[in-house]
């Protein structure tokens, strides 16, 4: 009976980690698997690391015996993270500081930006929460706070601070956030290629650019900017829906369109500066 139960648990865990399951139901992954640990990089599902024992225990809450077996399955081959100075176990992931000696820790390789910023792995994340988290982390990790510490602590704080800045900038805007979500799933939008774009869409863009180039008043430029902003709002809803359904190719095509309209928005700003 023990062997049978263990086999069932292992099979269930393997099914849970299957890459096709991740691609078809990404929203289930974030809710069912990474609820406690937030979002874990999904580009290589079979290589995901589970550093937080608290998150693992949550998977088997209320099922003491079976949860122990499940914990051992997920922990196979994993090394418990300890503080580099006092050697005490780190009970959080990512662990910015040791809870025992309060010393700053080295960044954990491969940790997703969503996890660093303590945000849900979703295209429509709470940007106010993101900003609050950013300010909190920078207050505690800024290199100025470690000017009188050891060289190692100074290096770790500088690395953390730069990583937090990059994570914040990436997740703040919808376009970079969406591209990063596709990147986590092993997809990317190639730079400088229009081969996959719809000819009608490209013609529409050409007309918009010509109209912007020929704009002679700020009112004309603002109108183009307002239209572009409205299109970006529509694309945001469409991309969110595609990602929730696991339709990655559709999300990729929509993000490519968003990229063009975001570029038009920037050109409108430049045009307004010229007209002032």
From TrEMBL:
InterPro entries tied to this protein: DnaJ_domain, HscB, HscB_C_sf, HscB_oligo_C, J_dom_sf
Keywords linked to the UniProt accession: Chaperone, Cytoplasm, Metal-binding, Mitochondrion
Keyword Metal-binding on entry: yes
GO biological process, one term: protein complex oligomerization
Recorded GO CC terms: mitochondrion
Subcellular location: Cytoplasm; Mitochondrion
Stored Gene3D superfamilies: DnaJ domain, HscB, C-terminal domain
UniProt pathway: Cofactor biosynthesis; iron-sulfur cluster biosynthesis
A molecular-function term among this protein's GO annotations: metal ion binding
Domain J stretches: 111-176
Subunit structure, interactors included: Interacts with ISCU and HSPA9 to form an iron-sulfur transfer complex. Interacts with SDHAF1 (via the first LYR motif); the interaction recruits the iron-sulfur transfer complex composed of HSC20, HSPA9 and ISCU and mediates the incorporation of iron-sulfur clusters into SDHB which also interacts with HSC20. Interacts with the cytoplasmic form of ISCU and with CIA complex member CIAO1 (via LYR motif). Homodimer. Interacts with ISCU (cytoplasmic form); this interaction stabilizes the (Fe-S) clusters on ISCU. Interacts with the CIA complex member CIAO1 (via LYR motif).
Family of this protein: Belongs to the HscB family.
Function text: Acts as a co-chaperone in iron-sulfur cluster assembly in the cytoplasm. Also mediates complex formation between components of the cytosolic iron-sulfur biogenesis pathway and the CIA targeting complex composed of CIAO1, DIPK1B/FAM69B and MMS19 by binding directly to the scaffold protein ISCU and to CIAO1. This facilitates iron-sulfur cluster insertion into a number of cytoplasmic and nuclear proteins including POLD1, ELP3, DPYD and PPAT. Acts as a co-chaperone in iron-sulfur cluster assembly in mitochondria. Required for incorporation of iron-sulfur clusters into SDHB, the iron-sulfur protein subunit of succinate dehydrogenase that is involved in complex II of the mitochondrial electron transport chain. Recruited to SDHB by interaction with SDHAF1 which first binds SDHB and then recruits the iron-sulfur transfer complex formed by HSC20, HSPA9 and ISCU through direct binding to HSC20. Plays an essential role in hematopoiesis.
Name of protein: Iron-sulfur cluster co-chaperone protein HscB
Organism, as annotated: Larimichthys crocea (Large yellow croaker)
Lineage of the organism: Eukaryota, Metazoa, Chordata, Craniata, Vertebrata
């Amino acid at each position: 009976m023990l062997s049978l139960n263990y086999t069932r648990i292992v099979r269930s865990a393997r099914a849970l980690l299957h890459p096709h399951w991740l691609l078809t139901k990404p929203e289930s992954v974030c809710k069912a698997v990474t609820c406690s640990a937030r979002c874990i990089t999904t580009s290589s599902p079979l290589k995901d690391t589970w550093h937080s024992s608290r998150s693992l225990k949550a998977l088997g809450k209320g099922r003491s015996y079976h949860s122990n077996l499940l914990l051992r399955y997920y922990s196979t081959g994993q090394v418990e993270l300890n503080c580099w100075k006092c050697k005490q176990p780190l009970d959080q992931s990512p662990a910015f500081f040791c809870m025992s000696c309060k010393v700053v820790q080295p960044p954990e390789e491969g940790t997703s930006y969503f996890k660093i910023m303590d945000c849900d792995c979703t295209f429509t994340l709470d940007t106010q929460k993101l900003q609050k988290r950013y300010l909190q982390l920078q207050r505690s990790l800024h290199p100025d706070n470690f000017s009188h510490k050891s060289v190692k602590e100074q290096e770790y704080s500088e690395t953390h601070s730069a990583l937090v800045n990059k994570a914040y900038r990436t997740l703040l805007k919808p376009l970079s956030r969406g591209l990063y979500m596709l990147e986590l799933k092993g997809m990317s939008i190639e730079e400088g290629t229009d081969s996959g774009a719809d000819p009608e869409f490209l013609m529409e863009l050409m007309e918009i650019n010509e109209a912007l180039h020929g704009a002679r008043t700020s009112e004309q430029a603002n109108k183009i900017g307002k239209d572009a902003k409205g299109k970006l709002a529509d694309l945001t809803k469409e991309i969110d829906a595609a990602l929730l359904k696991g339709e990655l190719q559709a999300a990729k095509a929509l993000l490519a369109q968003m990229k063009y309209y975001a570029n038009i928005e920037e050109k409108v700003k430049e045009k307004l500066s010229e007209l002032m």
